Prior knowledge:
The structure holds two protein chains of two kinds.
Chain A: H1 2-6, H2 10-57, H3 64-104, E1 124-126, E2 131-134, E3 137-140, E4 144-147, H4 156-193, H5 203-220
Antiparallel strand pairs in A: 1-4, 2-3
Chain B: H1 2-48, H2 58-70, H3 77-90, H4 94-97, H5 111-122, H6 127-142, H7 146-150, H8 188-199, H9 201-204
Amino acid sequence: MFITLIKLSESDKRLIFAFLLIFILVLVLIALIGYLIVRVMKWQGRRLDNGVSDVVYARVITDRTTFIRYARKKNWRMFYKSARISVVIMLVSGLILLIRNMIARDFTYDVFNTESGFGSLLFCWDFSQVIKIGGGTISFQWPTLINSPHFAISAWGSYLFVPGMTIGGLWYLWCVQSLIARSLRIRKLGDSIFSKNLDNFNQNEQLMNSLNNQQNSNNSGQNPNNPQ
Amino acid sequence: MSGFFKSIGKGILYLFVLPFFLIVLAAYAVFGLFVFIFLFFKSIILFFTGRSLNIELPEDIKAKEIIKSSMPQSGNPVVQQQSVRQEDVSSPIAPAIISPSNNPQGSNASPVHQNETVEEACFGEDEPTSETKEETINEPSTEPSPIETQTPEAPIPEVITKPVIDTPVDNSHVDTISTDTYTPKKSDFDDQDDDQDDGDDGDSGVDIKY
């Protein structure tokens, strides 16, 4: 029974190999995207240094708690300044859709429908019949095209709303990502600026060095403070 | 090949981390929206009270004041001269009093003080540097200083005279030109500054040498 289950035909093996290859490529792609996001977030976080460097250089703030409170306050204000345009774009887009719905007296309007929505500009396929399972067999079919791009004047509201909301939303998410990056940078700077690291400090070693120096100077008959 | 496997491992790691990152992003987006609304109303209130919601906080203003106040105290003579000139330019009385034609003190006035104000009145801030350079070069040919007579092979730029400009109206000022040597105090800041100046002598436009 088990042997019959793991018996694979040549086409099945090819199919599994193809899926495995696609899976590996997807993983590599995700790794590259993640690497890019990490680099971008590091770049965004370093922009905080321009804002807080003067305070640190001038020693206005000398402890970690005050620095983090100050930097967070500044971080939110930077976020507010940078996110204003994106929020305005999203608000204007929403206002356009509201005006369209009030004109058409239709508040159940689907902005992505293929007749009078943004879907009229897109290719749309029906994927519901791609896989058919029945009678002990699995059959595959190509998806059927249900809409080809065409311009509909009645969809003007969605033509303005969807791009505006997309651009504003992505811009806002970019600002949020900058906010997160700066928050991480604040924590890192708070730990590094005011850190007191004792990793390379050995009190006994220093004591022994001073004693050795004193002993050497005594042997040579010289003052340790004045080696000449 | 190891890099390829490493990137596959990172891909698997990011695949597990991605949902948490998206959750954090969404949480920050929602919380940021609330903070945005709060700051929006706060900025409106501040606007009607005559202020604005600046990125610059009181700590920044204090830090800038500290940095600004520490600048003239530095041992660099260039910084000191620039700060003095800016103060003189800001005073509206200086050009009217010390213009060559209307000078009530005549030749008794200090030539250095006259020169600075004439430059400001006629040529602006950048002129005194070039005038000073010409005087520094031309002066030893007419009246060699005692230092130069002792060591004729010594480089000229080691001697710095006070900034002086010829006044075309009255030639009696030539006798009152000061040839005092200027020896600034040496500090750590000077060492750094000298290192920086060595590289861009041609572009800076400031030719003050010790």
